[in-house]
Amino acid sequence: MKVSGIYKIQSEKKPKRIYVGSARDISLRWQTHLRSLRKNKHHSAKLQRHYNKYGESDLQFSILLGCDKEDLLMAEQYYLDSYKPYFNIYMVAGSPLGFKMPVYVVEKMRQAFMGENNPNYGKHLSEDHRRKLSEAKKGISVNKGRKHTEDTKRKISESKKGKKNPHKGTRPSDKAIEEIKRKLKGKIPWNKGKPNPHKGYPHTEEHNRKIGEAQIGRTHSDETKRKMSEARKKYYLLKRVELLTN
User: Fold this and answer.
1) φ, ψ for residue 160 (rounded to 5)?
2) Pick the CATH number of 5-104 from 3.30.930.10, 2.50.20.10, 3.40.50.720, 3.40.1440.10
3) For the segment 69-83, what is each residue's pLDDT rounded down to a tens digit?
4) pTM (2 decimals)?
């Protein structure tokens, strides 16, 4: 089962040496780390040197927090600020913001992929490939118009029956939320001045009728109203976090 959240890699012999990261699939990310370390190609030189010296068995992997994908950057930044991890190269969640490679490194990378060293050297894209690239740049999905079969829909439905959200109830600490609010104070809302993306795409009369019939006689409990209010606040808070991290 895929688990998204924040994870930690910690040395057993030197417990103060840790690495903090986030992933939509933590198990897969751990395997990626190991594969890079075994090939001596990990992006963190400190972690690679430590691995080469003390071995794979010295690194202990653990999950710090399970959270929804939308909360990953916010939660990761909180742990980066709290731990100030020794093995991490970047201290900004989700991107190498503020880190600039030396000029000689950039030049070496450029030279390494010039001419025949480029893996795409001499290759020509097919017309179909070119068309898909062009459509992707224009925002046209290659899956546009495709629909699941009834059998596929049934299988998807059955696979979700009886399952509970493993991350339900998890949330960033109050301290982390207050810190985010402080940083966002005075910032321009992410959607200010932007047009409604759904404008011009009204529901059909049939769709409106079904929605209306489904709501007849339904009333939200006070608890549901409270959750809906909190969900809206959380949604707009996360959108503003995106503004800070982009």
Assistant:
1) -95, -10
2) 3.40.1440.10
3) 888 888 888 888 888
4) 0.41
